[in-house]
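writing this on my phone so excuse typos. first protein, seq and then structure
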Amino acid sequence: MEYFEYRNVVIEAPYSPEAEAYRKLELNIAMMSIDKKTQVIQCTSPTPEDGKTTTAINLAAVYAEKKKKVIILDFDLRRPKIHRAFHCVNDKGFYDYITDDVDYHDLIVHHESNIDVLLTGRHFSFPHIVLESHKTADLIEHLRKEYDVIVIDTPPVLSVTDSVIISNYVDGIVYVVAYNKTKKEDAKTALTQLQKNNANVLGIVFANVDVRKTKSYYTYYSDNK
């Protein structure tokens, strides 16, 4: 079993080059949102372990740092990770909202970092069906009225169809690839799948860049031409 430690460097090391890189990412998103509000942001990647979850939690931390009301939704229903990143017990969450009609307000974890979190809760048998439901769409629309920013952590594009489904609900996608790890063809194929679904890919984050060589842990470029 994987026990990877997800570091929120914006909180743990706020003056580090890594933290500053996430602030630049947030600034790039803001600059692209001058004419159209980017409120719901999806983080995904081509393949597992590309850095999408780390990007999601650190981007949320930047918004919280700027006094924005922010929530992270863990919609990686098959391999949830957000509870590990925030050291929470994943005993209730989205599952209870879907199956038992529990009020989502009662399921939100108010973390000490000033980031709210909605975990997955128990395991879903058919995640893609759940994500296509009206209840999922309704949840996001309700949260739009309550939060400044909603960050959604989603599965890798090439693993399952879930990320493509979720792309229909969001304002933009941060697409994460791991430097010197993600295969070029995988990155291209997954990006094409998103674009065929008319997803708004805001840009690409290169994760795992060697800080000793680049002075930056994460770099970013816009996919818009």
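second protein below, same order as before
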Amino acid sequence: MGAGAIGQERGKERSGTEKSATQGGATLVSVAEKGDAKVEVKPPIVLSSRTKTTLNVDYGAKGEPLEKLDIYAPVGAELAPVFVFVHGGGWNKRDKDEVGAQPKLFNDAGILVVSINYRLVPAVQHPENVRDVAAAIAWMKQNISKYGGDPQKIVLMGHSAGSHLVSLVATDDRYLAAHGLHRNSLAGVISLDGSAFDIPDRMKNGAATIAENCRRAFGERLEDQLDGSPVQHVKGNVPLPPFYLVYLNPDSLNQRQSTRFAELVRAAGGQATVKHMSDGKTHQALCDDLGTEDDHTGRLLVEFVQSVTRGK
């Protein structure tokens, strides 16, 4: 079957509500064009020979098209660590299909992968998308054991804007508390080249497109921008989960904000590791290439997940 045909089959499969299939060693390829319109190319979804997929599971309001998640579980998994991918895209685009080779990377290490969607700007603004992330976590706490995952071993990873969402849900305890959970319900959090730990600083010092994305997501009021900034919520009575923060470019907004956030986490008694990756990749390729042949970041993320879930 050609790449286009595989892409069409994938689209059909994802139009259902909840379906399972075992596809040993398969690669599911995204369609790069839609009519005459240009569509951003997604990385191929690469599955392990051990991968069982369960797609488009409702975690929120039934019928809400973006409150869904996909599960990639090692066949026969029992109480496996759970790696949760939260996509980037400036809070206004991209989706859970951009999981790429992460299913193979983590499933081969015995780790279950969940990729989630959340509602996007401009249909919603902060804090609706972080509420979606919290709702997805609450669903996993109640249900992921049915798919072979351990609800006590949930590790979040967000790329770009997704980094903001996972960092906010792991610092501002209000969102998980709404579901009877707390930030230390998480085993760990990974930020992949994030720079939205301090929204007002990002709007002031980021590129014009970055500032505009923040304005659309958080509005014009400084109060709302501060409310959406993880640096404002690090302190609290509930312990923080361990953080692992990866950035690409030195002397960048991403490096500066990641380092500052890590310092605040440590000052609050938490653990935070900051890692510079100098592979010469672009911001998007750092995420898209996870688990591929020329990737050096994925192995570090697997090791982090294993370290923070060991003994739990």
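The radius of gyration is 18 Å. thats all i got for now
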